[in-house]
Amino acid sequence: MTAPLRIPFPVVDEVSRHCLQEEEPETVHIEVHLPGELDPGRLRKAFLEALRRHPRILMREAPGPWYRRHYEWELTGEPDVEVVRFAPPGAGALRDARTRTLTQAPPLTASPPIRLELVNAPGPGDTVQAGAGGGAGGAGGAGGAGERVGAALLLTVNHTALDGPACLRILATAAEIYGGRDNSAAAPPVRRPEPAQSDAPDTPSPWSPPARVAPGTPDPGHRTGNGLIVSELPLPHRPKAAPYTVNDQLMVATALTLAHWNRERGARPRPLRITMPVDDRPRDATMPIGNGTRLVEVPFGLAELDTADLPGLLHRTALRTRALKSRSRPQLGRGANLLTAPWAPVAARRVLARTLRRAAAPLLSTTLLSNIGRIPYPLDFGEEAGSAHAVWFSAPSRMPRGLTFTTASTAGRLHLSVRWSRALLGQADGARLHDLFAHHLHSTEATP
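Below the sequence we write its predicted structure tokens.
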């Protein structure tokens, strides 16, 4: 019998593996709403076939002694466990499934580290008006601005192994198998060519400790794990040929939201740094599966966070993000590469990684904004189920950041997830941050 193929953990996977903790599971949540219902048997068959077509996802952490120098993925060829599950019908089914995506990380020791849950015909209390949030378990509810939801698909991803865009690629393949229709990625929008940027003017120093998110009022009895609110907003308008993108508007809205929040809570004013994932992978069937984004940090000085000069702030932000995207840089920086070099057993490097993370907490960025952008796939499951009209993602919100904003656009609408650590914020705090974000995003708009 041939031994399974083994692959050493890439840098991102190993750093995440070192820093895992049970209190705040490292999960990515993906939620897709369809107008029609799905057949459970056909869905299971299509999803399993999609996994086989992308065999890099069929993996588990290989066992090994404490003194090994690498963690390794072991490719399995077939799933070890049942990957697709079906929520029992009834009121709150979608709310409960969403909560499971925050609290139940698929184990790394069973292939694959992803789970798909189907909620057909969500019941009362599961779909609310656009922009609203709430619900038990700290997970907000959202529907497509009153649009009927026939089925909701929820993917729970262990972020140590995989990221959201890679798993969306798997789901697009499953949709094509299920519905028999082409689900190839659309061509990216044509953008006006911009001159290469080596640096942006007036960039605040990256070495000063940035602001932290001011603590709110955690809910009694709910101080572990993450809370979540998802909503649907209009895409922000911007002038034709504007020197900034929607991503820059989202970045500015995030910075203004945090400055506003901290000011309300009397926190000492400090510069902000916002982590932004950048993904350069192709979106076709050749897309590498795994953790493929690199992280850059966008700084904001205190004097800049003045809404009186929004055009100037948007322009400077555009210059900075363009410069950061154009730089060649390891996914997590050169320090992570040194930390994961096999100079000592993984057990020793794990202790060092956790110690360094605690020591570097004051220097970590204030928050993370992950803008998936326009969903490139139609996610068309055929005539009966239809195409996705809403897609949400949410990224883990571990301390010391404790707060993430994730956005995607589908069918001309913006789908926003606000996710937070319950050790830092409560449900009412999450709702306030959501409303501040919506307000400041609207303030970046040009009148159409």
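The radius of gyration is 21 Å.
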